[in-house]
């Protein structure tokens, strides 16, 4: 199977027993479009049905990253035009995340370089998640007036202690050691050895199991170094144990050291609405029984956030005008009442079909 059409946003090919999906928008950090989501989903279906394919590998073209997330400029334009395409994209992206989480064959994501937002969605839900010394992983959505989606409200609450809450609220990026510590990745492999990953997996017998793939990858892996989040776990767990953003910020102010101070400064620059929405979604996700339940809740919140000023202001400041100076509405946490957050939790209509 091969789709090496010049200029294609996704390159699909088979190398012996390995099915390979390459995101091919390197100048845009392989940001996802609707057509890319559809091509990925179709390729996964084809590889699933192909008895010659033992494992599927997802990688990004270029040397800057696997995927920086969804194409937020396209989101901005769709939302402004009210043409409904932003919601179409999100619904199909969430279905792809669910498809990856339930995929029957070994699914290997090469999380080399920038892996953020939707990039986490197409990797961390997979069975074999590979990071490198270049990995920069994040769910940075509170910085653009949005919230961690693509099933992050399922993934983040299942990290050690409150590290997922820290990641979701701050949006700060982490490296290989932290990605493995949080359970969002499995193994560290040096970037220069990624071609060896392809060759090794392609050489596996067609009947190889996930355990066979794991053993082959482990033979190529190396120690990722020390985890910053592990070193600061006590601070994170003390400060982020609360169910209110104001309480978390007050707890951070009582902590000594630069880690707590940096965390607090970062949160104070984020959208107050996004912070409160994200915290509630993470707490709801912790009580959820399935990924599908979280994705359904997220799509309901997505529909509402497309109607909020902060979403457009955040994208304007980040990628349109690039002044990095968003003016949030409301600008203060105390002005974001419970009724404001409640409206994000209306059941989606129509329901998300998974």
Q: Give the mean pLDDT.
A: 96
- Share of helical residues: 40-55%
N-C termini distance: 26 Å
Structural class based on helices, strands and sheet pairing: alpha/beta
Strand order of the main beta sheet, please?
A: 1-2-3-4-6-8-10
Please specify the SSE layout and strand pairing.
Blueprint (H helix, E strand, L loop, with lengths): L1 E2 L6 E6 L2 E6 L10 H16 L5 E6 L4 E3 L4 H10 L3 H17 L5 E5 L2 E3 L1 H4 L6 E4 L4 E3 L13 H4 L7 H8 L5 H6 L5 E2 L5 H9 L7 H9 L9 H4 L1 H7 L5 H10 L3 H11 L3 H16 L3 H15 L3 H12 L17 H5 L12
Entry keywords:
three-stranded parallel sheet, alpha/beta, seven-stranded mixed sheet, 354 residues, globular, 46% helix, single chain
Would you write up a description of this structure?
There is one protein chain. The chain is α/β, with parallel strands linked by helices. 46% of the residues lie in helices and 11% in strands. The strands form 2 sheets. A 7-stranded mixed beta sheet has the order 1-2-3-4-6-8-10, sandwiched between helices. β1 (2-3) and β2 form a beta hairpin. It is globular and about 60 Å long.
In brief, what are we looking at here?
With 354 residues, the protein is of the alpha/beta class. It is built from 17 helices and ten strands.
């Amino acid at each position: 199977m091969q789709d090496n059409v010049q200029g294609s946003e996704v390159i699909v090919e088979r190398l012996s027993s390995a099915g390979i999906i390459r995101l091919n928008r390197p100048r845009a950090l392989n940001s996802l479009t609707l057509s890319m989501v559809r091509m990925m989903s179709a390729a996964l279906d084809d590889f699933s049905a192909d008895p010659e394919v033992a494992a599927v590998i997802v990688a990004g073209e270029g040397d800057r990253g696997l995927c920086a997330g969804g194409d937020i400029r396209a989101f901005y334009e769709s939302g402004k035009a009210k043409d409904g395409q932003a919601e179409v994209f999100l619904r199909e992206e969430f279905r792809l995340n669910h498809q990856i989480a339930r995929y029957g064959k070994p699914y290997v994501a090469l999380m080399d370089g920038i892996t953020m937002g939707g990039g986490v969605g197409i990797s961390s839900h997979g069975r074999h998640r590979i990071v490198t010394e270049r990995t920069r992983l994040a769910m940075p959505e509170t910085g653009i007036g949005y919230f961690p989606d693509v099933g992050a409200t399922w993934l983040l609450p299942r990290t050690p202690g409150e590290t997922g809450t820290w990641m979701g609220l701050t949006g700060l990026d982490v490296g290989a050691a932290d990605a493995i510590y949080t359970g969002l990745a499995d193994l560290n492999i040096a970037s220069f050895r990624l071609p060896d990953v392809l060759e090794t997996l392609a050489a596996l017998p067609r009947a190889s199991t996930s355990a066979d793939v794991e053993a082959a990858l482990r033979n190529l892996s190396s120690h990722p170094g020390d985890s910053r989040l592990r070193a600061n776990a006590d601070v994170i767990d003390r400060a982020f144990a609360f169910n209110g953003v104001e309480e978390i910020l007050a707890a951070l102010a009582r902590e000594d050291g630069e880690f707590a101070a940096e965390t607090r400064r970062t949160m104070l620059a984020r959208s107050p609405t996004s912070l409160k929405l994200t915290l509630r979604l993470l707490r709801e996700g912790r009580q959820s029984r399935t990924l599908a339940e979280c994705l359904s809740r997220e799509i309901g919140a997505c529909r509402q956030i497309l109607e909020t000023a902060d979403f457009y202001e955040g994208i304007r400041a980040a990628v349109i005008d690039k002044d990095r100076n968003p003016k949030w509405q409301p600008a203060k946490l105390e002005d974001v009442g419970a009724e404001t957050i409640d409206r994000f939790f209306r059941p989606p209509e129509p329901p998300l079909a998974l």
